[in-house]
Amino acid sequence: MFGVLRxxxxxxxxxxxxxxxxxxxxxxxxxxxxxQAFIAPMQLFGGGLxxxxxxxxxxIALDLVRPASLQLWTLSExxxxxxxxxxxxxxxxxxxxxxxxxxxxxxxxxxxxxxxAGLAIAVVLSFAWRYLLALSVCWLLDDRGVQVLSLVLMTFxxxxxxxxxLFPGAFGDIVAVLPWAAMVQVPAxxxxxKADVVEALAFQVFWTVVLxxxxxxxxxxxxxxxxxxxx
Length: 231
Prior knowledge:
single chain, 73% helix
């Protein structure tokens, strides 16, 4: 229902302003249902990881001595979750949008390959961001505050609500280069054929490497924190 309401709002906007942000009405409707499909696989509302609970319970001490990388182990679990939710919560909204409004589909195998690559990188990038938030519990003891902040940032700056191309001037330029844009706006533009494939994927990979690197440093840091706390 939320997707249908958003679609009608966007239809009204694009009927009043044809060609806004380089989209037509069909692009806008497709964007609406794409972002609906991204919510669950990319956990755009935050959470999805068990690390905060394990830090509070002290079980994280066991995880840190296992003969496996905590970050990679958690990533593998999250990829499995995302794949399942893409099937049960991602594809159905797209099908509903196609039946009710009609949506665009990528043209050709090359564009489909770019879309699949963009979605895969976006899932890993989303994990990298949420992993950093989860590790913060080791210092903050409660992640509710940072999760609320993350919800605001991801909702507003990822393109989940409206395309980032609508943001004006310098503000729009800044928003477009933040990591959250690579989670939603970039995959959506790849699907719609509105982005240069090499530049878009390179942008996603850059932020993924940066955030995963910070996560690796954070994992090393919590080893010392857990020892100090007596875990």
